[in-house]
Amino acid sequence: MQLSSGDHSQRLQDALVRVRGLLFPVEGVMAGGHMTFTASGEDICSCFVRDALAIREAEENGVKVAVVSERRSPAVEEMLRQAGVRHAYLGYGSALEAYEQFKNDCGLEDGDCAYIADDIVDIPVLEKVLLSITPIDGVEYLRNRVSYISAYEGGKGCIREVIELILQQQGKWQYSDHCVM
């Protein structure tokens, strides 16, 4: 999505209405920017409860939610199960490969999708989607190139904010009488 001309807020609202699929990486966006391991080398991961609740809300309201990670681990798989993530692309070589599989699995096109990314490895996906997003703590290079910068950090409410915005613009967020935009 180009942001060089026209009314940014109107273009953002128009894009939010069209989103049918949302994808983001586990690392940096869902679980934050930290990796924690036990002494035996097992990873420990967590996610923000409000993000998990929003993921369930999105799925219940027709927005497909998926996560991507180059790694596979029992801890990540359990976190995703607990959060209600139905589409997990773990062990993929690239986010772009996972994104293409997500679109294929869900019958989506680039113009139906939003992607939240916090680092440069996700640029190939950000360049394809309708709505490109980064958390406030995303790398500066992305903050200067995406459609929307979340007011929240990865792993600390960014997913919740984006899902609320999508569902509000689509008239599906039942917890407010008005749209924040």
TrEMBL record:
<dbReference type="InterPro" id="IPR050793">
    <property type="entry name" value="CMP-NeuNAc_synthase"/>
</dbReference>
<dbReference type="InterPro" id="IPR010023">
    <property type="entry name" value="KdsC_fam"/>
</dbReference>
<protein>
    <submittedName>
        <fullName>3-deoxy-D-manno-octulosonate 8-phosphate phosphatase</fullName>
    </submittedName>
</protein>
<keyword id="KW-0479">Metal-binding</keyword>
<keyword id="KW-0460">Magnesium</keyword>
<comment type="similarity">
    <text>Belongs to the KdsC family.</text>
</comment>
<keyword id="KW-0378">Hydrolase</keyword>
<dbReference type="InterPro" id="IPR036412">
    <property type="entry name" value="HAD-like_sf"/>
</dbReference>
<comment type="subunit">
    <text>Homotetramer.</text>
</comment>
<dbReference type="InterPro" id="IPR023214">
    <property type="entry name" value="HAD_sf"/>
</dbReference>
